[in-house]
Model the fold of this input.
Amino acid sequence: MASGVSLDREFTKGFVRENPLFILVLGTCPSLATSTTLFNGFGMGIAATFVLVCSNIVISLLRKFIPDGVRIPAFIVVIASFVTMVDLLMEGFVFSLHQSLGVFIPLIVVNCIILGRAEAFASKNGVLRSALDGLGMGLGFMAALVVMGTIREILGNGTLMAGTPYEFAPFGEGFKASPVLVMTLPPGAFLTLGLLMAGVKRLGERS
Amino acid sequence: MIRLMGRYVLVLGAICLVAAAALAAVFEVTKDPIAASRAAVERQAIQTVLPAFDQVGTAPAPAATGGTRLLALYPAWSSGQFVGAAVKVVDAGGYGGDVTIMVGVDANLKVHAIRLLSHKETPGLGSKLGEPKFAGQFSGLEVPAAGLRVVKDGGSVQAITGATISSRCAARAATAAVQAVRERAAELAAPPAVEPGAAPAAAVAAGQGGAHG
Done:
């Protein structure tokens, strides 16, 4: 199914036009859970992008070999294997990063962006397009998480870049002492996601 | 129909086989670095939860109390004087399952410091267990007979907002650790004889081996 879409559009569509979180509304569960701070969102985004690119490439390569009837279990095996590998490799070789992201890595298996792109794109397109699609979608997901994490961290925690050496309080120490806690809690996640979704939709309609 | 089913089984089986082989290879490669990193983190945790010491050993961990299990007990001495013990505690009552905490208990049976080792609590809420704002309040705490409790349960520990369940884990872990050290204060008081020249680091490493062996 070679489409006439140019390769760079395959890459850029994930950012706004087909943003996985705000437009496709995939992977909302891990997004709500891990966008409490900028750094958490960034970490989840990076790990998900890596798995998404790898699984898209492998599934695109195997797309002629996997019969339709068992494609979902086959995709899941591929995705879960990559997630486990990332988990082991990170713990073995970048231990401090794994310490801060460890809780998010296993969550990637259940992130339906990965399975969604495997099913909707990689199983019907060539390797190069699938890799670009995975990279664009992954980075678009990361951008969405970083925006959500930034808003929720500033309002709900009174800090920015917490978890890194560059942490600071954008609204001063007074606000940090009594921030709008609800923004860190699940209701704040829904509020942020809903408002951003509306905003991105508006942006998409205008252009 | 049968042929199609056969193909399904074959393809899925092949994919699983390749995945298993790849995972086994990655596991083999990363096994030793992971074990080394974990041991280093544990050593560092022992050092941060105890007063300064020059010798550390290992003592058998007592049996479980409720949902709280003690994984390892590391008594420490400075110039032959007992300065306290680090206790590695797992509490199964976390919001996301097991919470593992290293609790340092000083020679006066007060909590010296606690340090979060591993958990699956909600990022941004329960994960704040490890932050100084919460963990710091345990330093110098005496454990009452009824055990440490969070304020909501009639105790003195300030729980993390929105994460009372996680906060209770830390209170229970600190209580269990202090009780364990209190029970064996007598046998921990004197350091075991070490051969001259044995570095403290070597003693810790030996303790690690004993705890896991």
About this structure: Residues 195-213 of chain B have pLDDT under 50 and may be disordered. Chain B touches chain A at residues 4, 7-8, 11-12, 15-16, 19, 22-23, 26-27, 29-31, 33-34, 37, 41, 96, 118-125, 127, 161-162 (CB under 8 Å).
